[in-house]
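Sample 3 of the quickstart, ligand 2-deoxy-2-amino glucitol-6-phosphate:
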Amino acid sequence: MCGIVGAIAQRDVVAHLIDGLKRLEYRGYDSSGIAVLNDGIHRVRRVGRVAEMEAAAAEEGAHGHVGIGHTRWATHGGVTEPNAHPHVSGDVVVVHNGIIENHESQRQRLRDLGYTFESQTDTEVIAHLVHHYLQTEGELLAAVQRAVRELDGAYAIGVVSTRQPDLLVGARMGCPLLVGLGEGENFIASDVSAVLAATRRVMFLEEGDVVALRLDGVQVFDRDGAAIERAVRLSDVSLASLELGPYNHFMQKEIHEQPKALADTIEQVLEQGFSPALFGDESGEVLRQVEGVQILACGTSFYAGSVAKYWIERIAKLPCTVEIASEYRYREAVANPKYLIVTISQSGETLDTMEALKYAQSLGHDLSLSICNVRESAIPRASRLVFYTRAGAEIGVASTKAFTTQLVALFTLAATLAKLGGKLSADEEHAHLDALRQLPGSVQHALNLEPQIKPWADRFAPKHHALYLGRGVHYPIAMEGALKIKEITYIHAEAYAAGELKHGPLALVDEEMPVVVIAPNDSLLEKVKSNMQEVRARGGELFVFADLDSHFGESDGVHVIRTPRHVGVLSPVVHAIPVQLLSYHTALARGTDVDKPRNLAKSVTVE
Ligand code: AGP
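Result:
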């Protein structure tokens, strides 16, 4: 969602701020702005794309050696220029990610002190509060430290003031903020991608930290105000991984990167076998205690968890429940401390998933594992165990390579739990490792189906609705397919377990309703075939993703695309590919914004 950048340098920082904001665009936003200090405060804000704000900044000749910038995804107050960040109070300028929960009471208090408000945002409260304390403290760092003590809620902020133009202050609580360390120049950002053009040396701030950045160095203070050292790391995210290269869209690039993303993720498993060591130092001790698994996640990550339920119960013979994080966190759940809480999140920042984890911990769940794609993000840091997928940066809002690598992580978890519980014979372990070894190649074969899928996309493009059907372990792939087509093509799609069709949704089926079926040759294929007959008998047009071993042919109203062979237990990973490609090409045919679908954000850091 929102993004923060900040810089202090001997050079003009406007280009850095704007480049950083462009790299944060993928997170989702509806307005953007920068403020730089020269003789005064030069602020430029625009509703719409960063490019529009960039053009305005160039036209106005904005320049300065210290500045902050922001992409805003509206929460408090509409999408308007006055609500766009940065927000100014006298000589103080602030950008903010997160939500200040006590903004109403602070707003009243500040009004009583004589402050007036120009926006509807909670952020303006922070600007006034820092300005207020700057009068009493006389120093920006101390003013920020005083102000943040009075904020309830979540925040990452960047603050500058013309009173001290040689200083940039950052602070965080509940939202990510990192420092980029350059040579004679320093940076803040909410996401590492926004500093990589300047430096790969980064320092992740901890909860409650306040940081003072100057040209010649950086000082960090913890939540009690004590000076503290935070580890400096070399980011392993490459700038090239954030570029489009020869592709037209990040989603297209990320779909095609899957064989490599999977091979990179699988590499660690093939090296170590199904060993607890894959999940972190304490994992032997933690995983041996596990009597069941509770998975918590949102969106596509929830569907990955839904596939894993089948694997964990079938392979590890452990009970497994999967729940949408935003539901779990408000439910009066009955805790079983012997259950492993598994959170799944590409970004590691999703607020609902983070809060669900905290809620589980408050109920006495001490055994926790995070499956995540972003190192050092909040959710893995709050978990005892972690498995990092190696998908690389995922920029497209629609998750693709993160999903399939999450499936590999979850399959590995199922097999590891099985091994620890004495439920996996040496032959089975060998077979599962071999299946993983073959997987990138099978996914490449599925990608090669693209020319066959394009004509289907053209037939889909004029439709208003679609049904997706699957059974067993492939039912979540139908759900993922329906989500993918909804989010990037805006075609209304619903997924059903195919056996459920006759209990209601069959009433929707007519000649206008395309029905996508995931029908590989697994133990439920005959059942799926019967469900397909039910659709055909009502005039519904079937688009079936099968494999060479599912023996049925094309006929009138039944179109079939086959993967080269059935890959056994990992078949859901392979069948995720055609539904991704169908969505991508349908979006192209409809002319929608593939990478930045309307109303959506990549990292959902608000409720
Ligand atoms: C996926 O295509 C979606 N954009 C969305 O459902 C996403 O998977 C969800 O918001 C969870 O994100 P996370 O994996 O970063 O926690």
